[in-house]
Write a structure and sequence with these properties.
With 572 residues, this protein is α+β, with helices and mostly antiparallel strands. It folds into three domains: 103 residues; 247 residues, Neutral Protease, domain 2 (Orthogonal Bundle), CATH 1.10.390; 197 residues, Tetratricopeptide repeat domain (Serine Threonine Protein Phosphatase 5, Tetratricopeptide repeat). Helix 2 runs antiparallel to helix 3, helix 7 packs across helix 8 and helix 21 packs antiparallel against helix 22.
């Protein structure tokens, strides 16, 4: 028995060393208690079996006295003790509880920081990933074929100058979930005025990585080409519809779905109505079943509008709906969402209509050589992926980088940004000032300090905010002179002038920002406010866009208030 325990403990120690268990204190306690419960339950199970076996040795093999079955006299052997059967519920509860606690420990086998990541440069984007090089070539080829194949569905025109795109792809779903903490989402797009980020991970069983990549890439293509903000149901439905694109026999198949039966089952059982789907602005925090129903309704509606009966007429109605700032569904399609539900379910019953296209030419990206990252570079890149949904995790990673000698200025700037995300303004300001003191010519350091100074002043009229706006203006102007392509500096400078009472100067900068992200509710709001303050009629269009495209109630309410002010001013 002692030898067995020694072997088990030794084996467990080897696993701990090789897999990196117990790095995090919370995970150490989870694993300790989960393992303890599991060991206790397994011990009870072994003890019950041993006691039963020992007791049965005093009776004939066909006799089960603990089940109240009549038995003859015991055999004349030495008794092993009275049999007291263990409670099966007690044993099962220990085993199940231990397993659940162990399963809830997300970082047990997940650690993207313990292996190599590489950077790949393509003509369309930069890719940072731990996926094998052969798979990277396949993913990039599919993304280029995809881009060339879906032009007719996305519409719009690509701007002459567009923001750079960086894509992060995790090979492991567990690594993605633990690092990014994006809830139930398998990927997300983080659009800024400086660079767009796509962060992707596979789904259950590390499946559908290619499909997730195409889904999120659709969001980037839509934002790069279209001057309006699509409603959430249409953008997500379009991304899901196009992401299942199949390539075979030199042809591209659009419209097929490998999980149609699951979609039918979801829509037949869900309580989520189509009317709720078309009115939804954000789905963060939704339960898994409700979220799945939202995506399935969205996919079904987009599929029907593009490939269903009378598709050409439906597409004209769709174009009217998307271009109308009020987004009146019934007026555009001639039917209420509730009345369309049966039509969509009938559409899914038969074979799905699909479209075949010839395979686009010149889609092969060629040889893409990896540039594998150092440990510090890898940690810095992974901290970027954590910034949106897991800023506290990013802070831990960046602080460790800061402990190293000769940490770059960018680490302090990123720390300032992470603390800003967690509403720790004083610490954020400290790191921003420290970064600028170390290099007062650094463009990003100037912009970050200006951003922190004006961050809490967007909704405030306190005297200190007036001083902060004035401090931010020279920082932003010097940054813009050094790098005219920093559109975040241009946008913040427009805000600074607007809040300083110089609406005319503000508009010049806000219009430049608008050309880069015309779909942004925030940019539309401030540009509309600038036009309102100088009495320009273009104010209404931008404020209506801001109200209708806002993903949060705060910006929607602010746009409504600005429109009310505009109506009062027009009535005078």
């Amino acid at each position: 028995m002692k030898e067995r325990r020694f072997i088990l403990l030794t084996g467990f120690g080897v696993i701990v060393k090789t897999t990196g268990l117990f790095r995090d204190a919370t995970q150490r306690w989870k694993i300790f208690f989960g393992g303890l419960l599991f060991y206790r339950g397994f011990g009870k199970f072994r003890s019950a079996r041993t006691q039963r076996d020992q007791h049965y040795q005093t009776y004939p093999a066909s006799c089960f006295p603990h089940r109240n079955i009549h038995c003859p006299e015991p055999l004349k052997v030495e008794s092993k003790g009275k049999f007291r059967p263990r409670s099966s519920a007690n044993i099962v509860s220990c085993l199940v509880s231990g397993c659940l606690i162990l399963m809830s420990s997300d970082t047990v086998l997940a650690d993207p920081f313990d292996h190599e990541w590489c950077r790949y440069e393509t003509p369309r984007f930069d890719l940072v990933t731990d996926v094998a090089s052969a798979d990277v070539h396949d993913i990039t080829r599919r993304m280029e074929l995809f881009r060339l194949s879906v032009n007719g569905y996305i519409g719009g025109e690509t701007p002459e100058t567009k923001l750079p795109l960086k894509i992060f792809i995790f090979k492991s779903r567990q690594d993605f979930r633990v690092t990014v903490k994006a809830g139930r989402f398998a990927g997300f797009m983080h659009a800024t005025l400086n660079e767009n980020h796509l962060v992707l991970g596979p789904q259950w069983g590390n499946r559908y990585l290619g499909e997730n990549a195409l889904h999120e890439y659709t969001h980037h293509l839509v934002r790069a080409r279209v001057d309006v903000s699509y409603p959430l149901w249409y953008e997500e439905g379009l991304a899901s519809f196009l992401a299942t694109l199949k390539i075979a026999d030199n042809q591209v198949l659009i419209g097929a779905h490998p999980r149609k039966a699951r979609i039918q089952n979801t829509l037949s059982k869900t309580r989520l109505r189509l009317a709720q789907v078309v009115d939804t602005r954000q789905v963060a925090g939704w339960r898994h079943d409700k979220l799945s129903a939202f995506y399935d309704w969205s996919w079904a509606l987009v599929h029907y509008l593009n490939l269903g009966i009378d598709a050409s007429e439906r597409q004209q109605q769709l174009a009217t709906y998307l271009s109308d700032s009020d987004r009146n569904f019934e007026q555009a399609f001639g039917v209420k969402p509730r009345g369309l539900e049966r039509t969509l379910k009938r559409h899914l019953r038969g074979p799905l209509p699909t479209q075949l296209q010839p395979l686009p030419e010149h889609a092969d990206p060629g040889d893409i050589e990896p540039d594998c990252l150092s440990t510090a570079e890898r940690d810095s890149e992974l901290a970027i992926t954590m910034m949106k949904h897991n800023p506290k995790g990013a802070i831990v990673v960046l602080k460790k980088l800061l402990e190293q000698n000769h940490a770059p200025i960018e680490t302090r700037i990123a720390l300032s940004d992470a603390y800003n995300q967690t509403d720790e303004a004083a610490t954020s300001l400290q790191y921003a000032e420290d970064a600028l003191e170390r290099d007062n010519t650094h463009v990003s350091a100037r912009i970050q300090l200006a951003n922190v100074l004006i961050g809490d002043c967007v909704f405030s009229r306190e005297p200190l905010c007036g001083e902060n706006w004035q401090k931010a203006i020279p920082l932003l102007r010097s940054a813009m002179r050094t790098d005219p392509e920093r559109y975040d500096a241009i946008f913040f400078l427009g805000l600074a002038y607007l809040h300083s009472g110089q609406a005319g100067d503000a508009i010049n900068y806000l219009r430049v920002a608008y050309t880069k992200v015309p779909w942004s509710a925030r940019v539309n709001f401030y540009l509309g406010e600038g036009y309102r303050l100088i009495g320009d009629a273009r104010a209404r269009m931008h404020l209506v866009n801001a109200r209708n495209w806002a993903s949060s109630d705060v910006w929607q309410d602010m746009a409504e208030l600005a429109l009310e002010k505009l109506d009062l001013e027009s009535a005078r």
